[in-house]
Amino acid sequence: MRSTFIAGVVVVLAASTAPAQEVTLRAVSSFAEGTEFSKNFERFIEKVNADGKGLIKINYIGGPRAVPPFEVGNAVRTRVVDIANVTGAFYTNLMPEADGFKLNGKPMSEQRQNGTWEYINQLHNQKLNSYYLARQFHNVPFHIYLNKKIDKIDFSGLKIRVTPVYRDVVEALGGTPITTAPGEVYTALERGVADGYGWPVTGIFDLGWDKVTKFRMEPPFYSVEVNVLVNLDSWKALNDAQRKVLTDAALWLEGLDSEKVAVIKAERERQAAAGIQALDFGPAASKAFLDRANDVAWQSVIKRAPESGPKLRQLAGN
Ligand code: 173
After folding, report:
1. Is the CB–ligand 1 distance for residue 37 below 6 Å?
2. 163 C-beta closer than 6 A to ligand 1
3. 272-304: per-residue pLDDT in tens?
4. How far, in Å, are 58, 85, 130, 247 from residue 55 at the CA level?
5. How far, in Å, is the centroid of ligand 1 from the Cα of 17?
6. How far apart are CA 12 and CA 283, in angstroms?
7. How far is it, in rounded angstroms, from Cα 102 to Cα 246?
8. Is the Cα torsion angle 47, 48, 51, 53 positive or negative in sign?
9. Mean pLDDT of the chain, nearest integer
């Protein structure tokens, strides 16, 4: 009793006399820990914790076991977490136009200069009560992976696992979309619930999908976007020095995209070595697919976000 009381007094004194308080931010990722789309965020956390010693610290809670992927946007909006690594495809319920970010594959250095970052930051301020700290993977495209061979780019009769990223194009080409989180892809393929799935060119080995994948359809399309968002109240509560640690680390994180050129090349070779066969229908069919994929995606974004959709398209220039 007596010793507990004394310990309590000591703690209170220590807290009130501490000079500059180190702030701790709680972080989650919408992708599994240690996998392709979490790895650079995890390096970012290490950097912030090293560079920000005594000023700012990130406490990484983890991946989808902590917060389900499609709820991460809401968790950062409501400050259940302070910082999140999440793709816009997972929070289209709160921001329909987030589906349009995949249609801008310009480097972030350019997007920060031409007003795109600023506009997308405003959207996040308003709709997600968050600050758009960084966007990663602008130079990493998506593919449709299949277990049934097709002889032209037509998904009629095929059930394809999607997120909002691939839904419109899969439907436009006659497929039946089935939405799942990444954590359910393996089982859906193993059980034949899905005949294929959408996913970036990288990362299929992380969860063992190579064992349940036969084909990768060409061409690659769109542009991966995984964002680092900070709850806006958490952001405003930081001082300038703390914000600088985060901003400097964010620019460094965006710069890591340059590593992806080599990673993509190695990944395609690894897929071939694992027996995953590329289905390539030649330049004309590929161009027709890319045009269609671009058109249906913009139409869908503009329909759901009549004000911001056209603005995003103008900024993307496609
Ligand atoms: O397929 C997905 O789950 C998805 O939409 C996505 C988005 C960005 C990176 C990886 C996957």
Report:
1. yes
2. yes
3. 999 999 999 999 999 999 999 999 999 999 999
4. 11, 21, 21, 14
5. 46
6. 70
7. 24
8. negative
9. 95
